[in-house]
Amino acid sequence: MIEAAPLLNPGQGSETDVLLIDDSVADLRLLMDMMSLRDLRVSVALSGERGFQQAILLKPSLILMDVRMPGMDGIATCRQLKASPSVCSIPVIFLTAANDLSERLEGFAVGAVDYIGKPFEVQEVLARVGVHLQRREAPSESIDPAGHAVPSEATMDVRLVLAAQQVLRQTIANPPNLDRLARLVGTNRRRLNEAFQDLCGQPVFGWLREERMREANSQIGSTKTPFSVISDSLGYSTPANFSKAFRQRFGCSPSEMRAQRQGLIEADPDPDASSGIHS
Q1: What is d(CA 62, CA 43) in angstroms, rounded to the nearest whole number?
Q2: What's the confidence (pLDDT) of residue 99?
Q3: Which of 154, 196, 238, 262 is deepest in the core (most CB within 10 A)?
Q4: 245 or 159, which is more confident?
Q5: Residue 107 pLDDT class (50, 70, 90 cuts)
Q6: Do residues 255 and 242 lie in contact, with contact meaning Cβ atoms separated by under 8 Å?
Q7: According to the model, what pLDDT value does residue 211 have?
Q8: Tell me, what's the pLDDT at 237?
Q9: Nearest 5°: phi and psi at 154?
Q10: What percent of the chain has pLDDT over 70?
Q11: How do strand 18-21 and strand 42-45 relate by DSSP bridges?
Q12: Which of 88-97, 148-157, 189-198 comes out lowest in average pLDDT?
């Protein structure tokens, strides 16, 4: 029986990278196998109640949690986590087999940062976990001669990725092509793409797409900025293209996300309605 599984790398200390909360033993074993591909230290719980206790005790870097569980479900557990000062900043990714839009929106509303659909795709799981772990666990930084923030004892690949990410965030609306980006950080396109694949679980522009969607989700949930302005600021050619990409990524339109997260209906027109885009 799985309950509080030992860490995958017990020799590396007692810290937990990922806490898995799911009432399905089969899903937990599958996720543990995936995490082992990245040498991540894992702990597991079979219920929301136990998962909350594990989170308080272990303070993991990331939580992957099933939405539908008996007793305290994922939504309730996430609410408790976000109400607890010691763990409220830990990112939560929901695991769900449901195609229910209201369920996804409720998950974002209570503080989840992402969701992963069942059945799991290994590349998707590792990519999304890698992205959120990297943002959570950015090491202490110093400044290199080119002005890029880098960890004090980083490997060259980490330095390249951090420098490239800084450039991409600064030019997110009109980023350089891969060759130009590689030259800006002092490498070649092949090595840069390989470094992103190894450290982020996806190539350079796959990471950039995710970064755009994270920023869009943040602005939609926390501001009243018109969708057209968000679209332009993130480099989308039209508001309709932005809305289509957002729906594909989060399973709902920008206006639906804003209405749920801010608890109101915006007067700003939804590009979906005028462009004929449907899920």
Answers
A1: 11
A2: 65
A3: 196
A4: 245
A5: confident
A6: no
A7: 92
A8: 93
A9: -85, 155
A10: 80
A11: parallel
A12: 148-157
| The overall pTM is greater than 0.70 | no
Query: How confident is the model over 64-88, as a mean pLDDT?
Result: 89
Taken in order 233, 236, 237, 243, the sign of the CA dihedral is: negative
Q: According to the CATH classification, is domain 206-275 in 1.10.10.60?
A: yes
**Burial (0-12, 13-18, 19+ Cβ within 10 Å), 45:** buried
194: Cβ contacts below 8 Å, ≥ 6 apart: 157
Tell me the mean pLDDT in the region 153-169.
79
Tokens of 219: 């602005």
With tokens 């900025």, the residue in question is 225
Q: Domain boundaries in the chain? A: 10-136, 141-201, 206-275
- What CATH number does domain 10-136 carry, 1.20.1250.20, 3.40.50.360, 3.40.50.2300, 1.50.10.20? 3.40.50.2300
Of the two residues 8 and 17, the one the predictor is more confident about is 17
Beta strand 92-96 pairing with 62-66:
parallel
Transcribe the chain into DSSP letters.
--SSPPPS-GGG-S--SEEEE-S-HHHHHHHHHHHHTTT--EEEESSHHHHHHHHHHH--SEEEEES--SSS-HHHHHHHHHT-TTTTTS-EEEEE----HHHHHHHHHTT--EEEESSP-HHHHHHHHHHHHHHHTPPPEEE-TTS-EEETT--HHHHHHHHHHHHHHHTTTSPPPHHHHHHHTTS-HHHHHHHHHHHHSS-HHHHHHHHHHHHHHHHHHH----HHHHHHHTT-SSHHHHHHHHHHHHSS-HHHHHHHHHTS--SSPPHHHHHT---
Pairwise CA distance, residues 196 & 28, whole Å = 27
